Each structure stands twice: as structure tokens, then as C-alpha cells.
What does this fold into?
Amino acid sequence: MITAVELGLIYAIMALGVYLTFRILDFPDLTVDGSFTTGAAVAAVSIVNGVNPWLATLLAFLAGMAAGAVTGLLHTKGKIDGLLAGILTMIALYSINLRIMGKANTPLLGEETLISPMRAAGILGSWTSIGIFFLVSLVLVAAVVWFLHTEMGMAMRATGDNQEMIRSFGVSTDNQKILGLALSNGLVGASGAVVAQYQGFADVGMGIGVILIGLASVIVGQAILTQRYIWLAALAVVIGAVLYRLVIQLALVAGLEVNDMKLISAVLVVIALLLPKWKGFQKIVKSFKRTPAPVTDSKEEVRTNA
It folds into this structure.
């Protein structure tokens, strides 16, 4: 279970990226499946070639940003449907990732990674490592929340809420979409880099279905916690990522095979989407709140502030 929580906190980095596009920009971005592997590939190849793990992870973040920016340019400047733009970038990244690694798999055994000090100290797989990963997640949540409360972040939130309104204030919605997609996939790429260092290898197929994990984390977390406040909605994403990994772990312990993971993910997302519509569930959630209030999307803040 501890390993599941650790992985959940690492994947929470990716889920925060999905939150930026799915909830803030209201953009169905499928680039994630490709940019996750891109981050892992860039980090793995960099580390194998002697680059410092921290710098390698930063390079993975920048590579993810580049992938997201391409999707944004295809959509805004090329006038290609957002869903299709993401699919095109994702498909292209498969070949690019193979080019980066030169093969389908790049091992990191014996290499110095971000996880190596924890493994050497014997704290990996303990509550201490969970505390470290949780602290990193909180720092990233704070950074995302801070950004979304800046002038640029408010413009991005308004772009996802009402493009016509924000255009009337002279804001370029195209630039906001490109920036949002770049930041989102930058986080996804960084998550891929950390996952590769955690498991000890980067594989060209490791990003398949990652968008489903991200969506499950966002939807499950926000089905439990309110979306009324930005900070709570972002924190819910982290909680959702951990709960997702725990459910997967419990399903495997119950006897399901690894090949069933995608099916489990799909069922979990369906349940998370249907559960908030069940009146009994709504009453349970409200009973845990001191002051019952209608659950609204985080974008309501944007409408009010605008």
C-alpha cells in the first residue's frame, strides 16, 4: 500500500497538469499520453549521459512544455480542433520518443537519480518517503494556486470560462491556450521523468492511458472535495491521484490481473462521474461540510472576479 501511495503522489504531478487543461482551460488535451513518455525519455537519456538528475528533470519539464506548445499552435494558429490537435501531437511524439531513446527501453539501473539518495538511506517505501513526496506535491499545489491567482492566471481561467468576455478586455485567448497547454504538459513531462527514475527505466509505451489516470484523479478527487475554491480543487487532485492508485492496488490484491488496469481505470472514471449525480451521495458529502453550499466549478471564481 505504501508503494501505491508513493506512486499516487508522483502521478499527482501529472494530474495537476491535466487539471490545468481539463478544468481551467476546458480543453480536452490528449497530448498527455505522449508528453509523459517524452519527459521520461529525455530524463533517462540525460541521466545515462551524465547529466545531473535535477537538471535532467528540468529538461523533461521543458520538453513537455514544447510538446504542449505544439498542440496549442496547431489548435490556435492552425485552426485544428483541439481534440484532433492533441491526437496528432501524441502520435508524432511516439516516433520522437523512440528517436530520443534510440530504442524502446532505457534502463537506469546503477545510475544516480533523484530517488537514489532515498533508496540508499533505506527510506523508500516507508512513511518518511511518503512525507517527502507529499511535501513536494503540496509545494506544486501552492505554485499552481499562486499562478492561477496572478493576473496571467486569472486571464487563463477566464479564457476557459468565457472566451468572448475576456477577449473584450483585450486578452489574447490564443496565447493563454498555448501557455496553459505548455505548462500542463510541462508538469506531465516532469511527472514522467520522476516515474522513470522511481521505477528505474523509461519505456516508449509507459504513457499509454496516462490521460485516463489524470482524468480519474481529477474527477475522483473533486467528487469528494468541493471545487468552489481553487486551492481545495487543486488539493483534491492530489488526493484523487492517491485514491486512484489505492483502488488499483486493492483491485490487484483482490485477484485482478495487471492487464485489467485500463478496465479498472475506465470503470473508476464512470463511477466518479455518476456518483455526484446520486442524491444520496450529495447528502453524505453535505453532512461533512459545516456550511452547506452548492458545489460549483472553480471557474465561478473567474466569473465573479472578472
Summary: The beta strands are 105-107, 201-203. Confidence is low (pLDDT under 50) at residues 290-306.
